[in-house]
Specification:
heterodimer, A: 170 residues, disordered C terminus, B: 434 residues, mainly alpha, 76% helix, 0% strand
């Protein structure tokens, strides 16, 4: 199990590095566009379109890392009342809900990406970007997220049995 | 299935998922899938790819990571500490001294960050040790920071305004302008409250530990506030002089914040790594909540629930004011449990069509919405700003932070009431700037 865990963690880390680079690239691209348009009298003509793609990259490629760092928000007022087995049961149930949700989303995303690829759909801009390319990051990101949730579930099942009096026994 | 039964079932599913502790982004999406499933089977799943793509691939939304990055850079780039010292010096003579500096610093930092938590953390990290050392009342310190921090999402730039603007298809520039005067008025209300409390009970803000500076030192310290004012002028000036769109202003602001951090000698690999990781985490969290909400919203529209619900509410003949009070009540209750972004995306598909039917101005409503969700930041048990301030309070009890923040809840409700009776406070500036 450990090598699989390491591979998934490594992929999540690669995802967040790609997202971080996308943030910097976005800053640079839009700044160049503004300076170019306002000072030098030229436009990149791609800043609007490309920034949208970069946002997709940041959002989806960083999702697995965000989940791992507990960066998503949840309403934990009831959740926090549970300890030990109760907490473990809730974690299992909601991770399974997340898994089913992500499986459905991932399936339909890949169907969508494949159909975009098959129909050779391109953006209507000067770039004529094949749209399956930026959409690919959406599929990859959700697949990575799916792996993280799977890992979470496996970890929960392989964790030591919870102590009924609260807390997990070591 | 009748729309009302479908609505009740879908609401129950969403409530169970969210109350149980499911991640909000996944809970919203899962409830949306369930709604699609009971309405028309898996056929409703076919457009999911397009729905997800359209919810994120949006140039206006790219302002979110850029403003978050700028705020984080200000926090980690050594800019905030110097700025707060200067503010402290300028406002030291007012009743309440550094407590007033807290409010003004929060209001000004609100103009360089789009997130309240970042505002409270930025000012709080510097202010709490300083004010504690000088013997200020702790409840007053925590209250001024938690309350002042909420200004972060009212005074532009503001991430909730961007999200509201995108969902309601309203101009972000107008929304940003609409937030300025209510933000200043709210800051003044906070400052008047502090001054009154301190005048009545001077030991809340003792002046015994004032540090004296020579004129040269004063000038030097105050000069350090200029870069932040420069950044604000660049971002807001860029937008309102028509030079840049909000997204472009965010990018240029982020770029300049990197240069400023470099000038302060704080641009290191480690701090850049932290800033980028935080930006990615916040962006991914917000945008995936939006993607989940877009699935939920798509399901509601697809099944016709929101249309039927709107017609039903309006047919009941409720007067505007009753509906307005109901909306306030909903947000106050939700604010006890949800974070601001979730509150916006959760309620927009259901409430927004009704708001329009009742004839409310969408820009004005955006400001009301943001103040109401600000309230949620300082109402227990899930007040994000309370947690942030508690986290940097040096181990003080949470009760102290909550008690200090309670007056600010009432001041915000006062602001909502003022805006209800004087809507032009919000709507005048966007009109005047056109």
């Amino acid at each position: 199990m450990e090598p699989v865990r390491r591979i998934i963690r490594c992929l999540s880390n690669i995802g967040v590095v790609i997202s971080g680079i996308a943030v910097l690239f976005m800053i640079l691209l839009i700044t160049v566009e503004v300076i170019g348009r306002r000072v030098l009298g030229f436009s990149t003509l791609i800043a609007d379109e490309f920034s949208g793609y970069l946002l997709v990259v940041i959002t989806f490629m960083g999702a697995a890392y965000t989940l791992r760092c507990k960066g998503f928000t949840r309403m934990d007022i009831i959740y926090n009342q549970f300890r030990g087995r109760g907490r473990q049961a809730i974690d299992v149930v909601f991770n399974l809900v997340s898994l089913v949700f992500l499986l459905i989303i991932d399936y339909w995303l890949w169907v969508h990406i494949l159909s975009t690829y098959r129909s050779s759909m391109k953006s209507i801009s000067i770039l004529q970007t094949p749209l399956y390319l930026p959409k690919l990051f959406m599929g990859l990101g959700i697949t990575l997220l799916l792996f993280e949730v799977l890992l979470e579930i496996v970890t929960l099942f392989s964790a030591p049995k919870a102590n009924p009096s609260g807390g997990t026994s070591s | 299935m009748a729309w009302d039964i479908a609505f009740i079932i879908n609401s129950l599913v969403l409530l169970i998922l969210l109350m149980g502790g499911e991640w909000i982004a996944f809970g919203l999406g899962a409830a949306g899938l369930f709604a699609l499933l009971i309405h028309g089977g898996t056929v409703g799943f076919h457009p999911l790819g397009t729905v997800m793509w359209n919810s994120v691939n949006n140039f206006t939304l790219t302002a979110i990571p850029l403003f978050v990055f700028m705020g984080e850079m200000v926090l980690h780039g050594g800019i905030s500490q110097r700025f707060y010292r200067g503010m402290g010096l300028i406002f030291a003579r007012l009743p309440g001294g550094l407590l007033q500096a807290n409010i003004v610093s929060c209001a000004i930092f609100a103009a360089v960050t789009g997130v309240s938590v970042a505002t409270a953390a930025t000012v709080g990290t510097v202010a709490i040790p300083e004010l504690t050392k000088r013997g200020y009342d702790r409840k007053m310190i925590f209250g001024s920071l938690a309350g002042g921090g909420t200004l972060g999402i009212l005074i532009p730039p503001s991430v909730p305004f961007i999200i509201y603007g995108v969902m309601a298809q309203e101009s972000i520039t107008d929304l940003f302008a609409a937030g300025i005067i209510p933000g200043i008025v709210l800051s003044l209300i906070f400052m008047i409250y502090i001054a009154t409390r301190v005048l009545m009970k001077p030991q809340l803000a003792p002046r015994t530990h004032e540090v004296s500076f020579s004129l040269r030192e004063k000038v030097f310290v105050i000069l350090h506030t200029l870069p932040v004012f420069g950044l604000i002028f660049l971002v807001l000036g860029g937008i309102y002089f028509g030079i840049m769109t909000p997204t472009e202003a965010a990018a240029v602001g982020a770029f300049v914040s990197i240069i400023m951090s470099g000038c302060y000698g704080k641009l290191r690999y480690s701090s850049m790594k932290t800033v980028l990781a935080q930006t990615v985490k916040t962006t991914s969290m917000i945008l995936l909540i939006m993607a989940g909400a877009s699935i939920f919203s798509f399901a509601l529209v697809n099944s016709g629930i929101n249309r039927e619900l709107t017609n039903w509410v309006v047919s009941k003949g409720q007067v505007q004011v009753t509906f307005f009070i109901l909306v306030c009540f909903i947000y106050i209750v939700m604010g006890c449990f949800f974070d601001p972004i979730s509150m916006v995306v959760l309620t927009m598909p259901i409430l927004y069509p009704i708001v329009l039917k009742f004839g409310f101005d969408p820009i004005w409503y955006g400001v009301i919405l943001v103040i109401l969700i600000e309230l949620g930041l300082i109402t227990p048990p899930v007040g994000f700003n309370l947690f942030v301030i508690h986290g940097i309070s040096g181990g003080r009890p949470m009760g102290e932070v909550i008690r200090g923040s309670v007056p600010y809840v009432f001041m915000m409700l006062l602001m909502v009431t003022i805006l209800y009776f004087l809507p032009s406070i919000a709507t005048w500036l966007p009109q005047a700037l056109k």
